[in-house]
Amino acid sequence: MELFWKVVTELMNPFVFFLILGGVTSGLFVGAMPGLTAAMALAVLLPFTFKLPPLLGLVALGAVYMGAIYGGSFAAILVNTPGTPSSIATAFEGYPMAKDGRAIEAISIATVSSAVGGLAGVFFLLVLSPPLARLSIQFGSAEYFWVAMLGLTLIASLSPGSTLKGFMGGSFGMVLASVGVAPIGGENRFTFGMPVLQGGVEMIVALIGFFVIPELFNMAAHGRAALVEVTMDSRKRGTFFSAIRTVFSMPVNLIRSCIIGEIVAIIPGAGGSIANLVAYNEAKRASKHPERFGKGTVEGLVASESSNNVTVAGSMVPLLTLGIPGAPPDAVILGVMLMHGLRPGMDLFTVSGDLTYAFIISMGLAALFMVPVGLLGGRLIYRVIVKTPHYLLVPSIALVTILGTYALRNSLSDVVIMLLLGTTGFVLRELEVESAPIVLGLILGGIAEMGFVQSILRGTSLDHPWMMLFQNRLSQIIIFMMVLSFASPYLSAGFRRFKRGPEELLKDEGDSP
Amino acid sequence: MKRAIILAISVMFVFSAGIAFAEYPEKPITYIIPFNPGGESDVTARFQEPILEEVLGVDVNVNHKPGGGGAVAWSEFQRTAKPDGYTVIGVNIPHIIGGPMLRKNSGYETDGFGLVMWFHFTPNALVVNANSPFKTLKDFIDYAKEHPKVITVGGSGSYSANHLEMLRLEREAGIKLTYIPHTGTGPLVPAILGGHLSALMTYSMPPVQLGDKVRVLAVASDERVEALPDAPTFKEQGYDIVGGAFRGVAAPKGTPKAVIDKLADAFTRANKKIAEKQLPLGFVMTYATGDDATALVEKMGKSYSDVINDILEEQKK
Predict the structure, then answer these.
(1) Which of A446, A492, B36, B124 has the fewest CB atoms below 10 angstroms from its CB?
(2) For A335, which of B38, B105, B193 is closest by C-beta distance?
(3) Is A499 helix (H, G, I), strand (E, B) or coil?
(4) Contact partners, residue A178, CB within 8 Å, separation at least 6
């Protein structure tokens, strides 16, 4: 109880509120810019936080992180470009909504979902840290391999129309993932003698290339099909209260997405990029109308935006309890903690408990602050994009994109790679090979390879080294989920038949021409 | 009046330009970190930044150019950076030694830098889970002698400081282990806590952070590390194994000595100030500048050469 009051007094400081507000706002804009990532924003902020007391520094970083993950949804909704990898699935539903004149509605729903997700992550972190941390260390190399495989099964659902083309895209992504110095063995692969390729294809570079560039080509070729003025209907549904009503009208979806976000978050190395895709996929599978997905469904938007914001506080579970940074932004936060002499581990919750709890709660406040900031900021950005003439919009987005890509690693070669991949992406999109499976292959390819080779190496002493992949209970559970994920379309079709009974089925078939 | 002001301003300009020309530095310095934000190199650079700015009197901008275990940044640096002291880069041993020897087309050379200083060292440490049956280094080695290749040792990267140290331990102790490379120090923590590996060959920082959850069997430093007073060294236990990651900073090759000296002075002062923050985390401070800096590269290169030659032999087969 004493601790509680200490935490409250720490936070009842107007400067804290100012930092959260400023952090969320600036994070939002960074997240909305393709190429500028949460980790980069935190790294830029780092020197300033040294001059602040530890708590205030952490509060500012947490708020920027939260805002940036959420800000990615703006670019996703308004220009079909995930601002960060955490909002890939947001683009699938948000952009079609915006094209229908429902941009404000989409932004409002994304805002409320993100706030709910952010709060859920904080709740999990406050209440369930120790058991979650224990679960987190259960993931060994074999489990990583299977998680990546499970993720790759998403390709089937992310490529509407043709699963084969989806797999082609996914394979292309996995080939891209293998460029550079091999994580195991250390040889140069596919670098063609160019030292710059030793670093491989950065995920963000590919993301920008595959999503932004084809969209820019499209906008340039077909004029402003992109955004239309907000419709009257959407204006009504774009208010804060109706967005709340909409989001909470799907509690099962919301709870499921938050749990998925949390589980993915505690797996070190996964994070928002995978969480939003998995949650989206599950929302689609559970939906009564999966065929509406990809055409502007609120369910998918809610799943994506709530799950990715859960990962902000969610990935702090392994960070605060064990010192394992789950994602690049967490690495920066770990750095700040170490510099202030705070050593992650259970000490953080006992010895410096007041500071740790205040930091965690400040992330919850940041999630709440996102609502007013997001609703105002969203309208502002929307208006700017709609009012900007088309012939100015395309080059300005292109410019921001190039600057963002360059800033990522201060590398001109990344810009060239981005443009090359973008052109490839455009051609592939014309051939109806979607970008999402490619990016998924790129994200998961490296994880799968690492997990596979490490497991085989760990199995050296076994009679059959590959048995390592099947030995643990957790591996078996993930394999079971994978099989289920593959089989579910067939199972549910069979189940429906079974329920309808043979006569109806016959009648059904008789009806069809 | 107006004329007088203009005259005064131009005189000021001429003077300041003259002074600045003689006096390095006169404009912001870019400090490239060839790794991701948040890592040891980055955190250290952020510590140094304000002190360097104070000493040198200009802005110091820390930039990241990660990729290929430093290779991307180093190869570009050696190709393009001007030797004027306005671009400096973080360098690491054994990376800059092992990279060019082990990989064709790494794009950079070990002696292609104008070394400014090696400022700290994180020695390798052999670490096991606190519940491990290996209580001492002797237990570990005895078991490995009876069960070749059964003990799995995790470390960060292939042919990294961790990997080379494990190979050296195999050589010195006449044992065979199985090395499992990871993408960095971060993923090693769950691997050891979750019981997925028998041991880690990692840097001195993770065991400091993990405290009583792990046991350090040996540290690869000359003397015990301040933050790990109970952890014995390899030397104490009869193995001449000293190594780890040295971090330092370099200017382009051919940078004037006066400029290098000025940078070395600034970094040395920064190093003194950050020592109290770094020592408790498991770092060992070093102050190798000038010829000492070059000598350190040679010394470490020699100490790793047997191991690296073994690897090259192996690769030829």
Answers:
(1) A492
(2) B38
(3) helix
(4) A189, A190, A445, A446, A449
Residue numbers in A near B37 (CB within 8 A): 39-40, 42-43, 46, 328, 331-332, 335
Single-letter amino acid code for the residue at B268: T
In Å, how far is B19's CA from the nearest CA of chain A? 30
**Residues of B with CB below 8 A from A322's CB?**
189-190, 193, 210
Give yes or no for B101 touching A (CB within 8 A). no
List the single best residue of B196, B198, B202, B276 to mutate versus A (max A Cβ within 10 A).
Answer: B196
Rounded to two decimals, the pTM is 0.85
The residue ranges of DSSP E strands in A61-215, in sequence order, are 180-181, 188-189
| Residue with the two structure tokens 């001492």 | B136
Task: Report CA torsion sign: B265, B266, B268, B272.
Answer: positive
The segments of chain B whose pLDDT lies below 70 read: 1-22
Q: Search chain B and give the residue with CA nearest A325.
A: B186
Q: Which residues of B touch A468 (CB under 8 A)?
A: none
- Taking alpha carbons only, the member of B227, B224, B228 closest to residue B275 is B227
DSSP codes of every residue in chain B: -HHHHHHHHHHHHHHHHHHHHHSS--S-EEEEESS-TTSHHHHHHHHHHHHHHHHHSS-EEEEE---GGGHHHHHHHHHH--TTSSEEEEEEETHHHHHHHHSTT----TT-EEEEEEEEEEEEEEEEETT-S--SHHHHHHHHHHSTTTSEEEEESSSSHHHHHHHHHHHHHT---EEEEESSSTTHHHHHHTTSSSEEEEESHHHHHHGGGEEEEEE-SSS--TT-TTPPBTGGGT-----EEEEEEEEETT--HHHHHHHHHHHHHHHHHHHHHHGGGT-EEEEEEHHHHHHHHHHHHHHHHHHHHHHHHHHH-
0.90 surpassed by complex ipTM = no
Considering only CB atoms, B38 lies closest to which of A185, A269, A334, namely A334
Length of chain B: 317
The whole-angstrom separation of Cα A496 and Cα A494 is 5
Give CA–CA dist A139/A397, Å, rounded. Answer: 40
Distance between CA atoms of residues A511 and A505, nearest Å: 10
Cβ atoms B12, B242 nearer than 8 A: no
The alpha carbon of residue A158 and the mean position of all alpha carbons in its chain are separated, in whole angstroms, by 15
Question: pLDDT for A465-513, tens place per residue?
Answer: 899 999 889 999 999 988 887 777 677 667 666 666 555 555 544 444 4
Pairing mode of beta strands B87-93, B178-182: unpaired
CB A162 within 8 A of CB A353: no
Q: What is the DSSP letter of A208?
A: I
Q: In 3D, which of A190, A179, A165, A35 has the Cα closest to residue A436?
A: A165
pLDDT recorded at residue A499 = 63
**Taking phi first (over 0 means left), then psi (-120 to 50 degrees means alpha), and beta for anything else, what does residue A62 get?**
alpha
Q: Give A-chain residues touching B39 at CB under 8 angstroms.
A: 331, 335
Q: Is the CB of residue B290 less than 8 Å away from at least one CB of chain A?
A: no
Give the helix/strand (H/E) hosting A390.
helix A390-409
